[in-house]
Each structure stands twice: as structure tokens, then as C-alpha cells.
From TrEMBL:
This is Uncharacterized protein.
């Protein structure tokens, strides 16, 4: 452990506070913020790899991860549909402007 045991709770509190702020401010996606917090705790020696792997023995974290993946895919499809609609509107508008100028 790189952090003395008497300071470990404070360091974990700071990491969790930073994670909460990232969630509220939405600086990065929630899954990225959570992974950064885990990596920070691994890097500081507050977690070991065995503890991190032990999380996946429960199905809840895997379910939450799948929900992140599904929501990101749905958001990507929504953005693509919006881009397509904007492109179609712009193309139609441009075509109508060109036809009125030609006559």
C-alpha cells in the first residue's frame, strides 16, 4: 500500500468526492468516471486486483455495465436519427431555394 493506513480513509473519501462531482457536473461519462476511480484506487494501492475481480462474482455490476452499453447504443442511434433528419431537412430546403431562384 502506497498510502499509510491512517490516511487511507481520507484518500478514499477524496476519490469518492471527486467521483460524485464528476457525476454531477457530467465532465465525463459515468462509466468512464467510475473506471477512473477504480484505477486511481488501484494505483494508490487501496485496492488489489483480486478485490476488483471479486466484484464480478455478483451479477449486479455486470447488469449495470450492460445497461450503460445499451443506453449508449440507444443514444448513438438517437443522435444518428437526428443527424439524418437535419440532413434531409437541409437538403429539401436547399432544393426548394434553388428551384425558386431558377424560376
Amino acid at each position: 500500500m502506497f498510502i499509510p493506513k491512517n490516511h487511507a480513509a481520507r484518500v478514499v473519501g477524496v476519490v469518492l468526492l471527486g467521483l460524485f462531482i464528476c457525476f454531477v457536473r457530467e465532465w465525463v461519462k459515468p462509466d468512464v468516471a467510475a473506471m477512473r476511480a477504480v484505477v486511481r484506487r488501484l494505483g494508490l494501492g487501496l485496492l488489489d486486483a483480486k478485490q476488483v475481480r471479486g466484484v464480478f462474482s455478483n451479477s449486479a455490476p455486470i447488469t449495470i455495465t450492460c445497461l450503460f452499453v445499451i443506453s449508449e447504443a440507444q443514444a448513438g442511434l438517437t443522435k444518428e436519427a437526428q443527424r439524418s433528419a437535419l440532413h434531409n431537412y437541409t437538403a429539401e430546403r436547399w432544393a426548394s431555394l434553388r428551384s425558386t431562384q431558377a424560376t
